Every structure is written in structure tokens, then in C-alpha cells.
Amino acid sequence: MPKQINYQLNADELVTIRRAIARDKRAEVRQRATAIHLLHQGKKPQEVAETLAVTLGSIYKWHHRWRTKGLDGLADLPRSGAPPKADEAYWQRLTEVLESEPQTFGYPFTLWTAKRLAAHMAKETGIHLSISRLRSVLRERGYVYRRPKHDLASLQDPLARSAAETWLQELKKEPSPENSSSSLWTRPH
């Protein structure tokens, strides 16, 4: 015969659980405290599981964690995962690269795109980050991507440009008698 589990709470535990349900900032703690409170009220573990749309095993696990670790046992445990590929030295170097023109590194282009930046950093540091990861970290660090404004002024002859601007200003000052019609449609003469 299975061992009977005592779900009853003492007065201090009941105050702690009710306070957690009402005020805890962590949603998982509020949900799990609600489960503990329902068990205290005499609900069967299966009923609590159905009410909260969780498995029966979760109810037993939450109750065990409550009994062994208290309210902190109801919080999510830290999750493991792969350590980040890029360290602070990588991000420092990336900042330096972003503040430099691509031509200083021997590239023929004048703008850093995320793809170009990821490729350059992989070549320089040996750390390969996906373009989406690079973009998200740049966004977290306050960088924004702006579309470039294409300007061909550097390729134009300064004297010809000055003459064209002068001619344009003259055209704006006095309307030509030949083109004084207010219509966009004209007849050939």
C-alpha cells in the first residue's frame, strides 16, 4: 500500500503560500503555489493536475520541492546550455571594427553589412556567429542598422556640378515664356 502524503500546511506555510499566489513576480511560482494550496484544501493530486492542465508527476514533484526547499523550490531551476561562443574580447574587437571603415581592412566595399561583419570577425577571431545572432547582440548593445544613402557626389566633376547648380537656380528664378503653360501637356510647334 502506498505511503499517504500529508498535504496540510501549518499557519506559517499557509501565509507564505497565499502571499506567493498573490504577489510573487514569477509566474511559475504562483502556479505551483496554487497547486500546493489546492492540495492543502483537500483536492486530490489528479484533480489539481487537471485544474492546472499539468501532469500528475508535476504535482508530486512540486509538492516534494516545496517540502524540501520551501518557496524557492517552486521556482524554475537554472537551465543548462552551451556557453556563449563569443566572449567580451570578441565584442570589444567587434566595436573597434564597427568604428573603422572596411577599406582599412583591405575590403573594396564602404559599408559593413551583418553578413560582411560576421565573415570578417570569423576570419579575424575564428569565432563563427550566425548573422541573426550577430544582429540580435548588436541590437542589445544599442547598434541600429540604417539603410545607406547613395550619393555620387564624390564621382562628379566639381566644376560641372557647380555650373549645373547655377543653371538650375537661374531656371527657378524666371519662368521661360515658351513653357509658361500651366499644363503638363504641350503641343510641338
Architecture blueprint of SSEs:
Layout: H1 11-23, H2 27-40, H3 45-52, H4 56-69, H5 88-98, H6 114-125, H7 131-140, H8 158-173
Helix pairs in contact: 1-2, 2-3, 3-4
What would your notes on this structure say?
By secondary structure, the chain is an all-alpha fold. Among the domains are: 11-74; 88-140. The protein is built from eight helices and no strands. The mean pLDDT is 87.
From N to C, what is the helix and strand string? HHHHHHHH
Instruction: Provide the residue-averaged pLDDT.
Output: 87
Radius of gyration: 35 Å
Secondary-structure content class: mainly alpha
Q: Helix content range of the residues, please?
A: 40-55%
Number of helices: 8
Give the oligomeric state.
single chain
Instruction: Tell the overall outline.
Output: elongated
Instruction: State the end-to-end distance.
Output: 111 Å
**Largest sheet composition:** none
Beta-strand share of residues: under 5%
Write a brief structural summary.
With 189 residues, the protein is mainly alpha-helical. Among the domains are: 11-74; 88-140.
Which structural traits does this protein have?
mainly alpha; 8 helices; 52% helix
